[in-house]
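Quick one, probably user error.
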């Protein structure tokens, strides 16, 4: 699939900018190939700079401010040349994406409202800029893919996804922003926490995973948060049991979170693994199915016949 963004030209230059991606699907640390085609109008157009930038909407550090369109990566691909009148000039590129480039696609489906684009900026003499935009689809690295799939297997449900401005304390970052994936907690881990945020900080060797645990009591206005960090290498990622790995990380993070909130009545620890499974101790009696009440017809239960106790 090829995607093309076109700017039809503006002002005195009459320049048309067309950006075509050979394949708009890419991933962190990979190269994004394509071509920028510049077509001049009736006059020669002197090009001062030709730049490509990755842009996305980012939530500012101040939660009271609206989202902003931020360019988080820029690569020059040419400059100081002239596009003759009535002629075209093509510039091929294969720009490297930062390892921390936020993921926007998982399982072939966009992660909620996340979007990333490639912006072409042409600086024309004298001071004038114009450009074209084309969407880019950032797929997860295998290591990220395994973790996201394990979260899904364990029963976590994504509730929000976004990019936040600012750096994380104690974490080496190359970008001035980071991605946050928010989940409703899976039933096995509920109680000590109600929400989980997952943050990936990636480099060429591996992945740092931050698990941000939160326990909110909305009626009481109480919230307790804690952050645990885990590291894993890209090499050998396909040979690991990721459900077990993530379950171990989660139990460590949640137990640490519970210990920090030991004064609270909801600070129970997680003691059993996600792999623990057994048959019910007693058969479920009619009328006690999910969604029903004693004596009523819940899922898996018959209508009536309950003893009401």
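Nope, works fine. Designed sequence:
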């Amino acid at each position: 699939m090829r995607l093309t963004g076109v700017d039809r030209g503006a002002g005195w230059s009459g320049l048309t900018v067309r950006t075509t991606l050979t394949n708009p699907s890419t991933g962190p640390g990979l190269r994004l190939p394509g071509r920028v085609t510049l077509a001049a109008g009736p006059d020669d157009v002197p090009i001062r700079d030709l730049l490509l930038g990755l842009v996305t909407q980012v939530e500012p550090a101040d939660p009271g401010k609206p989202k902003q369109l931020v360019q988080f990566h820029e690569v020059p691909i040419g400059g100081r040349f002239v596009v003759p009148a009535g002629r075209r000039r093509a510039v091929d590129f294969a720009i490297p994406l930062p390892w921390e480039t936020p993921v926007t696609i998982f399982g072939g489906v966009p992660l909620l409202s996340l979007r990333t684009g490639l912006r072409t900026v042409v600086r024309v003499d004298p001071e004038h800029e114009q450009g074209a935009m084309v969407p880019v689809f950032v797929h997860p690295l295998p290591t990220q893919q395994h973790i996201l799939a394990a979260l899904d297997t364990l029963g976590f449900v994504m509730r929000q996804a976004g990019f936040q401005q600012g750096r994380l304390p104690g974490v080496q970052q190359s970008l001035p922003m980071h991605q946050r994936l928010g989940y409703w907690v899976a039933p096995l881990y509920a109680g000590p926490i109600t929400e989980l945020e997952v943050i990936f900080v990636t480099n060429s060797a591996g992945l740092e995973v931050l698990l941000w645990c939160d326990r909110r009591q909305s009626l009481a206005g109480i919230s307790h948060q804690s952050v645990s960090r885990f590291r894993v290498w890209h090499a050998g990622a396909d040979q690991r049991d990721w459900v077990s790995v993530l379950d171990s990380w989660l139990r460590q993070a949640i137990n640490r979170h519970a210990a920090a909130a030991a004064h609270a009545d909801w600070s129970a620890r997680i003691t059993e693994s996600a792999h623990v499974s057994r048959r019910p101790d007693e058969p479920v009696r009619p009328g006690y199915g999910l969604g029903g009440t004693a004596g009523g017809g819940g899922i898996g239960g018959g209508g009536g016949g309950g003893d009401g106790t």
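The first strand starts at residue 3 and ends at 7.
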